[in-house]
Each structure stands twice: as structure tokens, then as C-alpha cells.
Amino acid sequence: MIVFCTAVAGGIGSACRFFISQTIQKTPSHALFPYSIICINLLGAAGLGFLTGAVTSNHPLLVIIGTGFFGGFTTFSTFSVESATMLMQRQIGKLAAYLLVTIIGSLCLFAAFYQIGQLLF
Question: InterPro entries this protein is in (predicted)?
Fold first, then answer.
């Protein structure tokens, strides 16, 4: 049953990523920088941080929502493609900003929301 629920949650996470991505990609500034992927991955890091802080390590919700929803929602593969594309196009400044915002931002948001989850639960 946990595998089924995790799969359903993954589908919901993927659908949410699609809708957020489509909404952000309609903005003119998206062509200049992959804002949708940054937003999705930062939101995912914050959400997973909160969940991890709020529940015990062996709680089924950690698998269902953490692995399922946030696994389907966040997108490391697209992050990798965007990064490789910037590198191949020699857009080093843009790549550096993308890497720093995504990696440092994700770590900071995870840590902050982990603490919030622990404080609230």
C-alpha cells in the first residue's frame, strides 16, 4: 500500500511541477534564466525540510510525501540539463549564479524549514 501511495504522490508532485513550470515559463524573463526550475527545486527543498523536521525518520509520510510527492515535484535532471547547456554555451556567469542559487538556496531552505518543522511538531 505504501508503494501505491508513493506512486500516486509522485504523480501529483509531477503534475504540480508541470503547472508551476508552465505558469512561470509564460513570463518574458524565463527565456533569460531557468526561473521555474529554481523555484520548483527551492520549494521542494523547503517542503522536504519541513516534512523531515516534523515527522520521525520511520514515519510512512516521509516515504509517501518525501519520496513520492517531493521526488516527483523536484527535478534534478532538468537542473543538470540546464547547467550543462549553460556550460556548453560558455555562459559561465549565468551558470555560476544558477548553481549557487539552486544549491546554496536549497541547503539553506531545507535547514531553515527543518528547524521550523521541529519547532512546530
Answer: FluC
Residue 3 C-alpha from the chain's centroid: 21
Is residue 71 a known part of a binding site?
Answer: yes
Q: What is the pLDDT of residues 21-38, one digit of tens each?
A: 999 888 776 678 899 999
Residues 43, 69, 82, 100, Cα dihedral to 10°: 40
Residue 72 annotated as part of some ligand binding site:
no
- Collect all residues with Cβ–Cβ distance below 8 Å to 9 and sequence separation of at least 6: 64, 65, 68, 69, 72
Q: How many domains does the chain have?
A: 1
Q: Residue 47 corresponds to which cell in the numbers above?
A: 517542503
Domain that holds residue 19: 2-26+33-120
Q: How far apart are the first and last CA of the chain?
A: 26
